[in-house]
Amino acid sequence: MEEACKIVEMAVNAEMRKRKRFSLEWGVDPGDPDGHLTWRANFAAANCYEGSKEAVGFHSDRLTSIGPYPTIASLSLGM
Fold first, then answer.
1. Full-model pTM
2. Which domain holds residue 38?
3. Among 1, 8, 3, 6, which residue's Cα sits nearest to residue 75?
4. pLDDT for 74
5. Phi/psi at 52 (nearest 5 deg)?
6. pLDDT (tens digit, 0 to 9) for every residue of the chain, 79 residues total?
7. 72: nearest Cα among 49, 28, 39, 48
8. Number of structural domains the chain divides into
9. Given this model, what pLDDT does residue 40 score?
10. Are 39 and 9 in contact (CB under 8 A)?
11. Whole-angstrom Cα distance, residue 2 to residue 49?
C-alpha cells in the first residue's frame, strides 16, 4: 500500500499542476516557489470483487465533510 500510495500521489500531483487551483481548494506547498499544491493521501479504502459481474459502477458521492473541493484518487488493480 505504501508503494502504491507514492505512485498515486506522484500521478495526482502531476495532474493538479496542469490545471488552475480552485479558490477553496486546500493548501499550498510553502516550499514550492510557484505555489503548487502538494496533495497527500490521508485515507485508503479497498473493495474486493468476486468476479467481473460485481462492480460499483458510475456514481457520485457527497463528501462535503472532507471539504468543498476534495481531491479523490482511485486505483484499479484488475478486472
1. 0.67
2. 1-79
3. 8
4. 83
5. -70, -15
6. 899 999 998 998 888 888 877 766 665 565 666 666 688 888 888 878 887 788 777 777 777 777 777 788 888 877 6
7. 39
8. 1
9. 84
10. yes
11. 22
Q: What is residue 55's predicted lDDT score, i.e. its pLDDT?
A: 75
Burial of 76 (0-12, 13-18, 19+ CB in 10 A): exposed
Q: Assess contact for 39 and 71: CB atoms under 8 A.
A: yes
- Pull the grid cell for residue 6: 507514492
C-alpha cell at 1: 500500500
Angle at 47 between CA 2 and CA 58, to 5 degrees: 115
Alpha-helical segments (H) within the chain? 2-16
